[in-house]
Write a structure and sequence with these properties.
The protein has 190 residues and is α+β, with helices and mostly antiparallel strands. 43% of the residues lie in helices and 29% in strands. The chain is elongated.
Length: 190
């Protein structure tokens, strides 16, 4: 750990810009690919189908631009009361006294048919009871494809909630340092 002073009472906001920038690249490439296929398609049905796909990708690009420019578009916030997550369909707060520990793990998950690997991700440990009561979403559709990258079971009684440095505008060491410092002050270490 570093000897850098951390004001644990300071509200720390990690924005969505890094996440939206990454998604915008994918949506822009999807738009370009759809336009190319429309231009090369032989049948009107293919043209209409890929034109619709291109329009959807194009709309998502503009949605991400809008979300990037939105003031205070936080993905994660650290407060004296806890950590606010805005990674699901509903925002939720994890109070410091619900956190059982802070750790670093490697996350292996599937995104569709593609395997994803995230190395050195900071996670907070919470009870399975807290996760089931506050975080868990029964609907696979509402969970979305990235759920397994954010919420990782550790054992039967513990869940790990990820703070990805790939989408948060801070490096892994900084995220862990900021979270651990606040947890040591505000958390219940019983």
């Amino acid at each position: 750990m570093s000897d850098v002073y951390i004001d644990v009472n300071e509200r720390l906001i990690w924005s969505r810009k890094k996440l939206h920038r990454k998604r915008m690249i994918v949506f822009a490439l999807g738009t370009v690919a759809a336009v190319v296929v429309v231009l090369l398609a032989d049948s009107p049905l293919e043209r209409w189908g890929f034109a619709a796909a291109g329009a959807v990708f194009f709309a998502f690009c503009f949605y991400d631009i809008y979300k990037m420019m939105e003031p205070n578009s936080a993905l994660v916030e650290l407060l004296p009361q806890g950590i606010i997550y805005r990674v699901t369909s509903e925002d939720f707060i994890v109070p410091w006294n619900e956190i059982k520990g802070v750790d670093t793990i490697d996350i292996h998950t599937n995104f569709g048919r593609r395997a994803e690997f995230y190395q050195g991700v900071t996670v907070i440990l919470v009870s399975k009871l807290f996760y089931d009561r506050v975080v868990h979403e029964d609907s696979i559709i509402m969970r979305g494809p990235g759920w397994g990258a954010w919420f990782v079971p550790r054992d039967d009684n513990t869940m790990q909630l990820a703070l990805h440095h790939d989408v948060i505008p801070a490096n892994a060491d900084e995220i862990k340092r900021q979270v651990e410092a606040r947890w040591k002050v505000f958390g219940n270490k019983n």
